[in-house]
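User: For my dataset I need records formatted as: sequence, then structure tokens, nothing else. Please produce one.
Assistant:
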Amino acid sequence: MAVMERIDELDCWRDFADVLEAGISRVLLYGPSGTGKTYAALHHNVGNAPAERLVCTEDLTSGEITGTWMPVGEHRWEWREGPGVRAWRGAGGRGGRLVVDEVDRASGDALSTLLAMTDSPESARWRNPETCEWVRPGPHFSVVMTSNVDDLNDIPISLLDRFPVRIRIDRPHLAAVASLSSDLRGSALAGSLGPAARRISLRSFYAFDELRRQCGAARAAHLVFGDEVATSVLDALTIAALS
């Protein structure tokens, strides 16, 4: 299968919507942090079942993906399935969405399990250690992985091979921006303010929007953005108010 890697030909979010609508079940979103990659992965075209989410770290274990034994009483343990297997099952066994964030940070132990969980439907299977049941991904199972890297060489080639569609996200998601107050949306969509056009995360705009209600715009801008960018934020708000 040819790799579809579209960066500037069309809006990146339209690309994401198009590939999901086409039934592509393995998509990698990568690029600057704070642009709404996780938000879109959790909410766009997920069906009736809530998406399951994993955040990769150097300490992530395979048990945190597939499941682990948990104490449920004195001298009694019960197997609890992890988000990977729950996403395989989805609603009514038909499969759901698994969102894997910061995939480039996955440990070796976790990486081997992620390779198994994201394998092709014909090859993927996992055995429940309590019931010995063989579990396979449902027909509607999908995976969206995210990464803040700009260079795909930072992601293991064995994992990239499972994700033939890789979309660089270079602008904030409109739905994520829409939750901000109207006077902040233009700046948030621009994504950069201040000296050297410093990129500003959507999370910073969310924090500023909330904080200014308590202590005013000037103080909130100083606390969230620092002195260098605060002036640019306040200037943008003034322009928005005049408009």
